[in-house]
Amino acid sequence: MVSRSGEGPDEDGQAGDAIEAPFGFPAPLWRALERHRPPGMGLLQRWRSPLRGPWLTSVFGSVLLVGLPVLILTGLLSYIAYGPQFGQAIPHDVGWLKLPTFDWPSRPSWLYRLTQGVHVGLGLIIIPVVLAKLWSVIPRLFAWPPLRSIAQLVERLSLLMLVGGILFELATGVLNIQYDYIFGFSFYTAHYYGAWVFVAGFVIHVLIKLPKMVTGLRSLSFRTVLRTSRADTRPEPPDVDGLVAAYPAPATVSRRGALALVGGGVLFVAVLTAGQTLGGFTRRAALLLPRGRSRGDGPNDFEVNRTAAAAAIRPADTGATWRLAVHGPSGRLLLDRAALEAMPQHTAELPIACVEGWSTTQSWSGVRLRDLAVLAGITTPARAMVRSLERFGGFNHAVLQANQVANPDALLALRVNGVDLSMDHGYPARIIVPALPGVHNTKWVRSIEFGQP
Predict the structure, then answer these.
(1) What is the per-residue pLDDT for 5?
(2) Region class of 355: left (phi > 0), else alpha (psi between -120 and 50), else beta
(3) Any idea what DSSP says for residue 2?
(4) Is 299-451 a domain of CATH 3.10.25.10?
(5) Which regions in the chain score pLDDT beneath 50?
(6) Maximum C-alpha span of the chain
């Protein structure tokens, strides 16, 4: 192979380039910088796969170009669903990063189940594609010198934000799904700001790389790749970005094999996780359920995010002396379980969907929130402040919007699947509102304050 500029191959197996010092650096200084590489740069010579090149990188990139915007959008919608206008979303004070807010719809009842299920599910199944994309460009990540122009500086900064951001978001997201409160910082705050770092890097990187991605996709026929065996797999022509190895090793797998491997990884992760959102018979295949398969007995045998013990709910708090305080223009009303059971009861099949991606649909029975509002002296409440017996925690209260209170299926639930709620599921009473994030379906309710328009 003929080397460029009359130079031989360097220590990482790449042909040498003529040195042009950028940013006004003296050429001798730049040559010295290029000759004295950091430890470990010689490992680049091991990255000799003939599969690497613009086409494979562009295929993985095109998948991420479709999937990542959906991941971003559903994540931001989850933040809005938490009600930042009421101070319920974490973090609340985000300065100029504040999103436009609106009243989160209470119809259809499965809306949050869909958006958050897609967000968490897609975030998990996209991991094999992200890793494959990083593998395809890893020699480029360790190019030395790290930059040669202003344009390359911008590109590498965007790459740092993109790669660092997505790895942080995926790692913290997966850990938060599987474990409770293991971080020494607020997951919600870190995930929100980390998302914006990733979004900025993603947008800049797409603007820089989109033309090259289109060219890369056109460099090989997808049909031809699928028909090419390992024995017939050849490297792509050398490219300006250095993705193609200068001295490639023989192929150990075809490009179609690499695509099948990544696709199989996506399918495997989907099988292990999708059942937590889809439910039904698919739940049996969901081996990575973050809260286990069940939590309770009989009709109460379904997921619990926070137990009564974890919330420090004592039996005396929910015993015969428990009263629900209902506040409104008529003053404060104190209602025991018997009084609530004497009111008109309503039953609705509604899901609970958690920010961690799991959801479950159960049959809930209790008093309509709008009936309690009328009892408090308000026919069209503008909001409702719900407080829990839980003494600590960021979600021991919630503000419900007008449309959520007015929904005919919005309940102060007393029973589930025909029996009383268990302690872990919120006995003696809990909130159930269609399309509301699970954490705002407050358990162990002690008071509801209805606000006027």
Answers:
(1) 35
(2) alpha
(3) P
(4) no
(5) 1-19
(6) 93
